[in-house]
Amino acid sequence: MANSNLRNLPAWSALTQHFSELANIPLRQLFADDPQRNERFTVQALGLYFDYSKHRITPETVRLLVELAEQSGLRQHIDAMFSGEKINVTEKRAVLHTALRAPKGKQIFVDGVDVVPDVHAVLEKMAGFAEQVRSGAWKGFTGKRIRNVVNIGIGGSDLGPVMAYEALKNYSQRDLDFRFVSNVDGTDFAEATHGLNADETLFIVCSKTFTTLETMANAHTARKWALQQLGDEAAVARHFVAVSTNRVKVEEFGIDSANMFGFWDWVGGRYSMDSAIGLSTMISIGPERFTEMLSGFHAMDEHFRTAPFESNLPVLMGLLVVWYNCFFDAQTVAVLPYEQYLKRFPAYLQQLTMESTGKQVTLDGTRVDYQTGPVYWGEPGTNGQHSFYQLIHQGTKLIPCDFIAFGEALHNLGNNHHDLLLANVFAQAEALAFGRTPEELRAAGTAEWLVPHRTFEGNRPSTTILAKALTPEMLGKLVALYEHSVFTQGTIWQIDCFDQWGVELGKVLAEKIVPELEAAGEPDLKHDSSTNALIRHYRSLRGTAK
Ligand code: F6P
């Protein structure tokens, strides 16, 4: 693995020089100069058409970025991850979400133990349970079948399940209602359970640690809510199951370990949607389709592990992020799915990317002297076009975009909805790249005073990803694409993509503040003047100040 400072790598210096030569060349010219540009910068693999020709790159840029990846030890780092080395150095853990989708018979060792049989044992247990709920064989405490499934979790224990449920709703069993509770704000629980009967409701409490404040608060509230209606502790066994790595805490909560689905410390929360954390997904779409999703993940894993970097989708995607982030000083990446079912995909990616690459020191603790993770954000198209696209087109910030679209509509309404949708995604990428010049506007008769307002500079980069249809398998491929893009970025930046120490401090301070909010008398506050005043003002608003 590389241990040299990123800025000292020969490829970094070469890219710095190359950037100064390329920075002012518009995409219009790059396309005009190279009739083969589209073929040169399009990769087709695993059913994905990945067009990155509308990026501010030349073949030399790609050559140098690939050199940067090689000099950063990306190949060795990939091998280290796939073989179960403890590459999460600050937590001394292997990083093996790829083992969650490894086919039966493959061997992957952690501390000398092959983990693949354990993965498949949990998948089988999940499948058995999912089938029982789907068929109605699993009965609630009063003998009724389950109609509602409520997933309680937060972060990776919520965002993956809710994103996958929404993305694959078209394949879900529609006589089951799925709801998701994450926020400690009581509104979330109240609204998620609104109108539900406890005797038809199953709670899946998802928490890797089974100690997370929000999830535990919501799980206890759920138990109270269920027992108020069902009136007997014995009902918990029929209405609560847990997904966790922490058997002791699950049992302490009162959930029988027979109703617990396990996973392992080598699965990071934000990389866990294909572990038992995906139980709600499996209940929704069924074990067979869940297996298809896993095979999509696995296909992308194998592509990432084996394809040459020049035609490796996650590597190219990750290198482009590094290119804009570190050389063009771009602060964000917009993910713009032209598929309504992917409406929670950007939110899911926010944790995956930003909890992974939001780091300020390298693996050995040295402060970085370059930019690390960009902000990811986005909304489905075409909605975003009538909201924030204005800024992407004519604002002062450079925002590389990922457009994602599919050839087949999942709902054919007998008219041209899908053509309208696809025409828009192509038009947006075209407008961003090539803009509209003052000369074109004048030629079209635009009044001179309006010309500056109506000019589109263009030269705004984007990738367009096209696939046939949003299936479970394709969702697996897309998620793994972004997972490994993040891995590529983190390897170049020499950071630990698998820890999340940055979420700790707020948790510790909140624990200290809770008793101060709830104290009967005037608490002795020792925070800064702003925090002290906020606490006092809240207490007065709430009507508890003495
Ligand atoms: O926000 C920090 C975090 O640890 C995430 O990484 C994780 O996905 C989330 O909290 C939930 O954790 P758990 O699954 O242990 O409840």
What does this structure look like?
With 546 residues, the protein is an alpha/beta fold. 46% of the residues lie in helices and 10% in strands. It has helices at 10-22, 27-33, 37-40, 59-71, 74-82, 116-135, 159-167, 186-193, 213-230, 236-239, 247-253, 279-285, 287-306, 313-327, 345-357, 389-394, 417-434, 438-443, 451-454, 472-493, 504-518, 529-542; strands at residues 42-45, 48-51, 109-110, 113-114, 148-152, 177-181, 201-206, 240-244, 260-262, 332-337, 375-377, 401-406, 462-467. A hairpin with a 2-residue loop joins β3 and β4. The mean pLDDT is 96. The chain binds 6-O-phosphono-beta-D-fructofuranose. 6-O-phosphono-beta-D-fructofuranose (F6P) binds at residues 154-157, 207-209, 212, 215, 269-270, 355, 500, 503.
Biggest sheet descriptor: 6 strands, mixed
Low-confidence stretches: none
Helical run tally: 22
- Count of strand segments: 13
Looking at the structure, what is the overall shape?
A: globular
Distance between the termini: 60 Å
Task: Specify Rg, calculated over alpha carbons.
Answer: 25 Å
Q: From the helix content, strand content and strand pairing, which structural class follows? A: alpha/beta
> What is the share of helical residues?
40-55%
Q: Which whole number gives the mean pLDDT?
A: 96
Main sheet: strand order: 1-2-13-12-10-11
Q: State the assembly state of the protein chains.
A: single chain
Bound molecules: 6-O-phosphono-beta-D-fructofuranose
Strand content: 5-15%
